[in-house]
Amino acid sequence: PYKNGGREWEPKGAPAQVKxxxxxxxxxxxxxxxxxxxxxxxxxxxxxxxxxxxxxxxAVASIRRWWQARGSHDYPQAARLLITADxxxxxxxxxxxxxxxxxTLAAETGLEITVCHMPPGTSKWxxxxxxxxxxxxxxxxxxxxTSHDVIVNSIMATTTHTGLRVHAELDPGTYDTxxxxxxxxxxxxxxxxxxxxxxxxxxxxxxxxxxxxxxEDPRSAEGLPPQSRASGLRNPELTGMTEPALDELVDQLxxxxxxxxxxxxxxxxxxxxxxxxxxxxxxxxxxxxxVLAAVLYLRxxxxxxxxxxxxxxxxxxITRAVHQIQPLLADHGCTVRPSTARFRTPAxxxxxxxxxxxxxxxxxx
Length: 365
Hints:
This protein has helices at 56-74, 96-109, 127-139, 148-156, 183-187, 209-216, 226-232, 236-239, 243-269, 287-298, 304-311, 315-331, 346-355; strands spanning 33-39, 44-50, 80-85, 112-117, 165-171, 191-193, 201-204. It is of the alpha/beta class. It folds into two domains: 33-207, no CATH class; 217-269 and 283-355, no CATH class. A four-stranded mixed sheet has the order 3-4-7-6. It has a three-stranded mixed sheet with strand order 1-2-5, sandwiched between helices. The radius of gyration is 28 Å and the shape is elongated.
């Protein structure tokens, strides 16, 4: 029984008595969490009103109930489902449980489920906001939401002159919080990250198929020797520049890079060389590989540890390479533009290169 902004027709002199602050208390009937699905083509809405916690399991359960009650009947031949979701919340792109729950739904329904997240800060661009929830808010404006029945009935009574119809029902289920999803769990998902912002756009397959095959492919980055691995990483789709441009960049930086490394080693020794150049332990990365590793890191394709895995070295080796080469790139006026692709494992990189189509690359350097 809290204040709800707006106006509602009531008998004069008999306003409804409400509380002024809408914080939970132990005297009320509990919480109400509306989770909506809006069918863009049919102009229909489905809202599950939860009573427990706004978790990824609750979000996917709402989608499951919509599919079982409406979606599978309205689209009996459907093999794919496209979901546009916000960037945060229970269906956010960083929420691991959201992906695992969707994978379970894909396996149950046989649907190939593609998710496209709105960029952070742009949730109002999502059609569900101005075609469904805005009308629901206007419909219950000024009316105290005193019970779950009032909330559900107010949502179901929402209509528009364009023919919007809304179904709502109460979901009394229990949804636990604090469920952990490990890296291993995520790696096992039959999920394909798209070329453009794979963290925001991805597809979950109903069974492992091609995605699992890519992870086990003997040609994957984890199964190749460092030389072959680095050769594959020169792909223009990853570096953002053509291979001749990359070779030219390596030639430009090689001499200066060798001078800086020799100067640094001289300072560590405290004097001139005792042994000839090339004696002693070999470098873990060649000069060309150091430049390539720095370019890939500055492209923000993944974490430092991922780049290290791709080259078969540890993270500190990549850090040193980036610290040495980044100032040289700036001196040469070379701007490494961030990529729209994001990867988490070497298998993701392999799958991306397998599925990518050649595009025209305009080098920044």
